[in-house]
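Researcher: I'd like a structural prediction for the single chain below. Treat it as a standalone chain; there are no partners to consider.
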Amino acid sequence: MHRRLHGRGALLDVDPAGLAPRLVGLRPHQHRAHPYEHPDEPPFVVLAGARGLGKSAVLAELREAYRGHTPVALVDCAEDQFRAPPADRPAASWSPLGQALLVIAEQLAAPVTGAGRITFPRLMSGLVAVAAGGWGDADSERIRREVERILLLNEGGSWVRGVAGRWAGKVAAKVVAAATGTGPLVSGAIEATLESVAEGFTSRRHQKASVWYRTYPNAGGNAQRGLILLSQHFRDGGSSREHAERYLVRALLADLTEAYAGMLPRMQRLGRPLVLLDNAQSAPGPGLVAAVLRDRTEGIADRVAFVAARRGEGHEELPGAVRRELPEVARRCDWAPDTAPSSRALVLALPPLSPDDTLHIVGAVCADTAVPPQLSHATHRLTGGNPLGIVLLAESAAQAVPGVSALGELLTAGLRTAEDGPTVPAYEALLERLAPAEYLDELTVLAAAHDHGSACALAAALLPDTFGPASVRALQTLLAEEGLPDVPGRFVGDPFVRTLLLLRLHLRDADHASWRTAHETLIAHYPGAEHARYRLHHELALGETEAAVGHLRDTFPTADPRAWLRTLRFIASAPYFHAHDAEGRDFTGRADRRVAVALGGTDAGQAVPEGVDAVLHLRIRRLLHAVWLLADPLVLPDPQVCDRLRFELEQLSNLRPAGNALLWRASRDWPAAALAGRPMDAPGSADDADGPDDPDDRSGEA
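Model: Treating it as a single chain, here is the predicted structure.
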């Protein structure tokens, strides 16, 4: 596998071959054939998941691996060129999918090892017919410019550029003549295009292409009439346009199939053409995917290997797709379609990177920078293996001033992501790519929420009046569509994204006013005893520890031990950022006093409430601060605090004979989990770790 990618060997390995060489029929970075796993029809591969998992990086690596060896095209459906037509082109004669087909064909036409350029006469004819529908009031120069770009799809070599220019002039002259009243505009352009194909090429293959549109519905065996109908359907919009676009996709694939037909092309061209679609959830992605899958279902074969990347899981567009985890397809994908078009798609979920992958990435990025030995461990713990998070945090460490190494400082330190780009805090650079930009302000506020009700309370306190309950539900739906996990008890389910959003909320105002308002709002939202742990969680986020200590102390003798441990874990999952005063409250200063409290260094000066067991009170206080510190994703686990956590839980187990086993097991499991970067689950909770009782669990993460 190429050195720039980690954890994606199931796709790109050479020996034994990963999925890509088995579907493309070529070894990556080599002009050497490999047996096809699906010789008759490959699955349409879709890489799915949330932002930052490296889908775009995989597509870029695939392009590099096969460029020059087989025809390759990479299109990012989120680019501006697919959002709206050029200023001088009517919308009736333009669509994102039509533009994408032109861009794809231009890239696929490039010569490769052992074979020349591919021409696209069918697609060229169709695109000219579509473009002609918008030439009613165009000047001759604009017509010439549009026509020449399309006609160059039929360029078989550098000498043809002059011929294409002549064809473009001929078509433009006919269109201008039609526009002045001497003939029908669209039919004139189409007639000139078909004539140019017939005159410019005498081969049987190109002659076949010139009459391909005879089979267009209601064309009556007349190619010119078929193209006129195609142009009209495109201008009509709606389902008629979708019908025309499917024929344009079919034209592209038919041209590619023709390029591989015959004895000589089969000897010269190894493997399959490769079309890569990034951000395929955006137009033109869905239309292109649907057209290919529908034709394949109807028995219209093509020779192309498609790999698309999309945010979210694609359940609505691809309900019948075969779904696999990436490791499951490392040596064989076991894909077999049924009668549904979407079953011809193979959806792969890209997994997070492993701790070893993180170690290698941090080591490569920070090769010339002295960093703490635990930086990679802490980075993996914070990001959960998110590739983008790992890379940008490593780059922040490499660019940081000497002495800045804590994760919190690296997130707020200036980061330059491009040589000529501005310097921005690393957390802002991450959120720009991990969260939907149009809702970043709203998500910043709602990240502190636990459910719809608490999110509405926050929206009423900190967001404009126009952002009401319906907007909250719409944003919840958007997060699900983006592929973020749905975690009970967290409005934003992804722990890494949530941490970044909460940091942004904390730094939103110089005096942290929004931060305090958000948590005070949620404290008021949870007044009852049944929601005490939520209220105490938000009090702790403001540095107010007394009520949490008191609640845990008073419930310890009677509460179910497992439920009590979960409550402790949830309360102590409160965020803790750098600005806290001597009492732990969120104002100014940088000192983190949790270590001192957890190790008992402040016990002597602590006033114990009258009438309570002082030993138990101080023990619970030390335990709360130890868990609060060790659960903090921005802080490296302190071995001394881990030892103290073990001791405090062990001593508590002696006070509860009925719950001795659970508390004693926690005294062993929690310190080990903290040191390993795993969540501190309640003992025996493997089956329900993701349930509503523990919304901050990240079970299974290393």
